[in-house]
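ARCHIVE CARD
CATEGORY: sequence design from structure
SOURCE FIELD: tokenized fold
FIELD CONTENT:
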């Protein structure tokens, strides 16, 4: 009997060691891939909210104004509210990785795309599925044209991305204003309502489904093309990439055009949520949140290696932080200040300097323990 108990404990210890080794490798891979910061930030926010309010993450079922059964709760609000930000963060990640800079005009470009979307819808006598598809196609083309303009300034004329996109950031909402003659037209249709809110019979918000579709499309794009490799190569060293036959100008331009597609999707979602276009308020100030989502996601803002999944998690971290602050009765004017403090901490913790010092500390700690155990064995 004693031998069986000893064998059981020996097998249990071996299992624990294997699990520990597996977790250690997983943590190392997360740290090396830059995913540790967004995941830790997300877990800390989850833990904080569970302590503050155990029912914070409760999900309920209710009927909306249209009489449809839908899911409701803070979790749904977080993943739904972050939809436009997550989509923009995907495109921004590519631009950042390829160009070593950020596009600060995504909010203004989304207003232009949204205005074009509404312009086509209002030109039609009735809003049908075909009309909506045509309107989205026009919005997508318009956004890609403006994105190509930004990309040309960066890729061809070698202008720093933030400076190049400052032009559209400054005048973009004025262009959106001109498209609809200074008006804020409304678009009322069950199809538009379904895009921005819920599709009848599906309890999950439609923007969440669109984010999932965009994520799958990016995954397929990276799976069946060499875009990830080429983008990272250009971002790390454009000259070396050219010597290896990679057209760095085309890759940078392509990254902006893909961001233009993301901008058009986000702009159309924003319009569909409200059922109108307001060039002044549509996705206002989302540029900084998009850049922060990329940074929190563990991506280098100087270009090179990137993870789309990290940027998506970063978008949800920002949205969860916003919902948490509102749940704590923080006024809307103070939310930005609190967000800035938390985000500064996250970005500093994820900086290369802090990572390097933390790595050295862990190395000393491990070697110190090995020395102590070795001395104990000698004695």
């Amino acid at each position: 009997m004693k031998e069986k108990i000893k064998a059981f404990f020996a097998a249990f210890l071996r299992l624990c060691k294997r699990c520990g080794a597996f977790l250690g490798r997983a943590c190392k891979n997360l740290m090396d891939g830059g995913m540790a910061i967004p995941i830790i930030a997300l877990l800390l926010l989850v833990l904080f909210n569970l302590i503050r309010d155990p029912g914070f993450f409760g999900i309920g079922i209710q009927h909306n104004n249209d009489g449809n059964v839908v899911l409701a709760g803070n979790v749904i609000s977080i993943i739904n509210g972050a939809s436009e930000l997550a989509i923009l963060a995907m495109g921004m990640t590519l631009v950042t990785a390829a160009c070593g800079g950020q596009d600060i005009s995504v909010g203004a470009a989304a207003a232009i795309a949204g205005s074009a979307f509404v312009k086509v819808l209002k030109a039609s006598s009735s809003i049908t599925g075909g009309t909506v598809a045509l309107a989205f196609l026009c919005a997508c083309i318009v956004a890609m044209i403006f994105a190509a303009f930004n990309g040309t300034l960066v890729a061809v004329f070698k202008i720093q991305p933030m400076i190049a996109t400052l032009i559209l950031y400054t005048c973009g909402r004025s262009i959106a204003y001109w498209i609809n003659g200074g008006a804020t037209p409304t678009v009322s249709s069950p199809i538009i309502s379904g895009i921005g809110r819920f599709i009848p019979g599906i309890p999950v918000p439609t923007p969440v489904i669109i984010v999932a579709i965009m994520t799958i499309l990016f995954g397929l794009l990276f799976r069946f093309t060499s875009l990830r490799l080429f983008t990272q190569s250009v971002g790390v060293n454009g000259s070396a990439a050219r010597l290896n036959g990679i057209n760095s100008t085309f890759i940078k331009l392509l990254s902006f055009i893909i961001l233009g597609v993301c901008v058009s999707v986000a702009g159309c979602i924003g319009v569909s949520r409200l059922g109108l276009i307001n060039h002044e308020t549509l996705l206002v100030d989302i540029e900084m949140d998009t850049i922060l989502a990329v940074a929190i996601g563990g991506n280098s803002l100087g270009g090179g290696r990137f993870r789309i999944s990290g940027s998506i998690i970063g978008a949800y971290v920002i949205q969860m932080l916003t919902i948490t602050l509102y749940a704590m009765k923080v006024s809307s004017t103070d939310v930005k200040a609190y967000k800035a403090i938390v985000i500064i901490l996250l970005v500093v913790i994820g900086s290369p300097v802090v990572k390097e010092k933390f790595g050295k500390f862990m190395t000393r700690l491990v070697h110190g323990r090995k020395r102590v155990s070795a001395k104990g064995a000698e004695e």
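CARD ANNOTATION: The chain has a mean pLDDT of 86. Residues 175 and 360 are 52 Å apart (CA to CA).
SHELF: design records, drawer C
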